[in-house]
Write a structure and sequence with these properties.
By secondary structure, the protein is α+β, with helices and mostly antiparallel strands. It is 27% helix and 27% strand. It contains seven helices and 13 strands. The protein is globular. It starts with 5 loop residues before the first helix and ends with a strand.
């Protein structure tokens, strides 16, 4: 008779609860409250369970994101280290399209410099130099984060299990090679919500250098035998804090060296 691993049974139970919360757009209580024995390794395994389920249903992994990489976002969420999540093909929204709010729980927007890789990154040994050599181009981007946890009452374990609160990604159409930028760390961004500027920030808010966040991600993923591949889109983290959006919201992000990107919600 095969014994059931009680730890794995808990992970599968949490994964199912998060799956139900996302597919019904009905937020749940924090996993860390309902299952207090969970640790960070459990949370990443829970994330993987739902990613495998989505891939089995036909989704394709198109990249990864680093979450909570800026001090502003760590303070906002009450955590002190980054996390990561997967980006699937059905998360990408064309600029100019409208995002249907009723399919999300509580969306918020962030502005980021997206990296697109020309070649795969090394794992445990990855450095900023490796990231700079492997990057094909960068793009202006808006990330729409969404928590399946009620009222965003999350800790690190909650957001990791919830695929780093991933929602949607909107990429601008103005690619720039890193060699065409004076310094990617100095790229400034302004976030406009319904025509009003609500925040501005600089790419160096992301661990001092967004390329550092990409290198951190490559090393972190290596512990799970995952590689950042050629063509992957990497979202290194937000230049500013996140802002709530709802039906009728119009969001525009202007980057001084990359141009703009915008999206609206219905």
């Amino acid at each position: 008779m095969t014994r059931t691993d009680p730890r794995q049974a808990i992970r599968e139970e949490v994964a199912q609860a998060l799956w139900d919360a996302e597919t019904t757009a009905t937020p749940m209580e924090p996993p860390s409250a309902n299952w207090p024995t969970l640790d960070v390794d459990d949370a990443y395994e829970i994330q993987q369970l739902n990613i495998r389920r989505r891939v089995a249903a036909g989704a394709t992994i198109r990249g990864h994101k680093v979450g909570l990489s800026s001090r502003a976002m760590q303070q906002m969420m009450g955590v002190n280290e980054p996390d990561y999540g997967h980006l699937l093909d059905d998360m990408f929204v064309f600029e100019g399209d409208q995002i249907l709010v009723e399919k999300m729980c509580m969306p918020r927007v962030e502005v980021e410099v997206a990296f697109v890789l020309r070649k795969a990154l090394p794992g445990r040994s990855c450095t900023v130099a490796d990231v700079l050599r492997a990057t094909d181009f960068v793009l202006p981007a808006i990330e729409v984060i969404d928590s399946r946890v009620r009222d965003w009452k999350i800790g690190l374990i909650d957001t990791i299990a919830d695929n780093a609160s991933s929602g949607r990604v909107v990429l601008g159409g103005n690619p720039k090679r890193l060699t065409d930028l004076p310094d990617v760390r100095r790229v400034e961004a302004r976030l406009h919500l319904d025509g009003q500027e609500v925040a501005r920030g600089c790419a160096d808010a992301v661990l001092g250098n967004p390329a550092t966040a990409v290198a951190w991600l490559a090393r972190r993923l290596a512990t799970y035998q995952v590689t950042l591949e050629a063509g992957h889109v990497i979202m290194p983290g937000s230049c500013t804090r996140a802002f709530d959006v709802g039906p009728g919201s119009r969001v525009c992000a202007d980057f001084d060296a990359l141009g703009g990107v915008e999206v609206s919600f219905k």
